[in-house]
Write a structure and sequence with these properties.
The longest helix is centred in the middle third of the chain and has 32 residues, at 33-64. This protein has helices spanning 12-26, 33-64, 69-76, 80-90. By secondary structure, it is an all-alpha fold.
């Protein structure tokens, strides 16, 4: 009978790595708090650098295979916008939303401007005034 795919959570390598990190952290118990905190912070930063690089590489590979941003995000535990942002950062593209990219390809400053129709009246969905309740328009 063929062996089915191994789930990531069942991968023994992850268990070994987690045990190694736990053993390292347990060895810090006898150290002074300042040294202990510094080493834990260094460990977190080092692990974050390595895992973020691997995550970005995996997302780029998935994108190259034709995966959509939402599909990548579901697998990576990120929103599709965060996936888009990280992929843009990894490829040195402007990382702002498409509406923030100016004609030169750089990220435009300022807030997004809404398009006004010039109409004043009631909202079709909730029948409230289109303006704030401060009495500017009925």
């Amino acid at each position: 009978m063929p062996k089915k795919g191994v789930r990531v959570s069942d991968d023994p390598t992850i268990g070994f790595l987690k045990a190694d990190v736990a053993r390292f952290c347990a060895g810090l118990d006898d150290l002074a708090p300042a040294i202990r905190l510094r080493l834990v912070v260094q460990l977190r930063q080092s692990l974050a650098e390595v895992t973020n690089a691997a995550l970005d590489s995996g997302m780029a590979a998935a994108k190259a295979e034709g995966w959509g941003l939402r599909q990548i995000g579901a697998q990576a535990g990120l929103s599709h916008e965060k996936v888009r942002y990280r992929l843009a950062q990894a490829s040195d593209e402007p990382a702002g939303p498409a509406w923030m990219i100016d004609s030169k390809g750089s990220v435009a400053s300022g807030r997004r401007r809404s398009v006004s129709t010039g109409r004043v009246g009631r909202c079709g969905r909730c029948a409230r005034s289109r303006w704030s309740a401060r009495g500017r328009a009925a």
